[in-house]
Amino acid sequence: MHQAAQLVRKDELMRLLLSGHMLKECASYLKLSYGTVREYARQPEFLAALKSLSLQIYENVDRELSNSKDAITAKLEAYSEDALEEMIQLAKSCSSPIVRLKAAQDIMDRDTRMSRSRKLESNVHQTFMNPLELHHLASVAREIDKKKELPPAPATEAPPSE
User: Fold this and answer.
1) CB contact at 8 A, 4 and 31
2) Is 22 exposed, middle or buried (0-12, 13-18, 19+ CB in 10 A)?
């Protein structure tokens, strides 16, 4: 096979592998034998190139996601003050009591001291008991209840003192 054609097939194999295809699928797609594809994939140069290309793709995607996140964050910061002022105006001046209520609720939700979505903090620690402990405690409670139900034992008279 011509060296240029082999290089193109290796590049295509690399692309297929990075797309998540298995070696057998790649062999079928490239119309090569499984053994040939496996030989290409075992070559140290091929593995190094595959790793390098995979790293480049990862870095590009990571950079794009980071830039997108930064752009969205910047937009939110730029417009959040204007949105807050608009909600304050609605809460103060709108003729509809429902709109005023919703605007006030939204403003309060943005205040971390009043937010409905913030979890309530408490110093209470929940403890869970296993079923055996619960069974034992229930038995003890039944025994105490039975003792409370029994009439008091008749008092024994002390023998007369001489």
Assistant:
1) no
2) exposed
Kindly state the greatest CA–CA separation across the chain: 130
Per-residue pLDDT of the chain (162 residues; tens, 9 = 90+): 578 888 889 899 999 998 889 999 999 999 999 999 999 999 999 999 999 998 998 898 888 888 888 888 888 888 878 888 888 888 888 888 888 888 888 877 776 665 555 554 555 555 666 677 777 778 788 888 777 776 655 655 555 554
Q: Taking the CA of residue 162 as centre, how many other CA atoms within 13 Å lie in the half-sphere pointing to its CB?
A: 0
CA distances to 7, 19, 30, 40 from 45, rounded to whole Å, are: 12, 19, 20, 9
**Does domain 3-79 sit in CATH 1.10.10?**
yes
Residue 96 phi, psi dihedral angles, 5° rounding: -85, 120
